[in-house]
């Protein structure tokens, strides 16, 4: 057989393998595979895209629905009622990611139990000059000095009104606690809940590990609640404080 024949066969093989690799990677991305995101997607993005550009693109993609959807149904044990609202799970997104209230629906579809938007300023402002976001990959941390860049309260308010959001600050004279910071596993979430938090939020873990971290935390939290004899999140709230009385 001619050299041209083998050259064409080799080219076809590369196309098939390359196309298969792209399709498989796309499948894992849409599926929200935890290991694929942790070992491939997020590390590659962090190497080739600046922190602020990655943040901006993420919000835009999520606002357009281009996200891996949460295919796992939260169990009833994860349900919690706070401020007169029912949350399907106590794991929320902290302020600073969706600063302008653009991606709320997409974030809920990814599996968050609640989403905090902002920070929001009275008037639109640009914030600090760039660069203003820095990754500390070795420490799994982010330095954020955006300087409260915001579309302004009126713009964000209209977005929230459009979604039909109704917010209450206090109910029944109680101020629930939301645990934020250092949440990257179900155990982290449960420790904050046992200490008195009704809800927990994450941000840095979401930035480093991507959308699958939501399902990972809720899955682990559900298992731990069952193992420790709690029928729901509300039973676990303040358990450590009660045991010390």
UniProtKB/TrEMBL annotation:
GO CC term (a single one): mitochondrial inner membrane
Keywords in alphabetical order: Flavoprotein, FMN, Membrane, Oxidoreductase, Transmembrane, Transmembrane helix
Transmembrane annotation, as ranges: 12-30
Location within or outside the cell: Membrane
Reaction equation(s) it catalyzes: (S)-dihydroorotate + a quinone = orotate + a quinol
A Pfam entry, by short name: DHO_dh
PROSITE patterns: DHODEHASE_1, DHODEHASE_2
Pathway: Pyrimidine metabolism; UMP biosynthesis via de novo pathway; orotate from (S)-dihydroorotate (quinone route): step 1/1
GO molecular function, one term: dihydroorotate dehydrogenase (quinone) activity
Domain of life: Eukaryota
GO biological process: one example: pyrimidine ribonucleotide biosynthetic process
Record-listed E.C. numbers: 1.3.5.2
Dihydroorotate dehydrogenase catalytic domain sequence ranges: 78-166, 171-225
Record keyword Methyltransferase present: no
Family: Belongs to the dihydroorotate dehydrogenase family. Type 2 subfamily.
Protein name: Dihydroorotate dehydrogenase (quinone), mitochondrial
Organism: Hymenochirus boettgeri
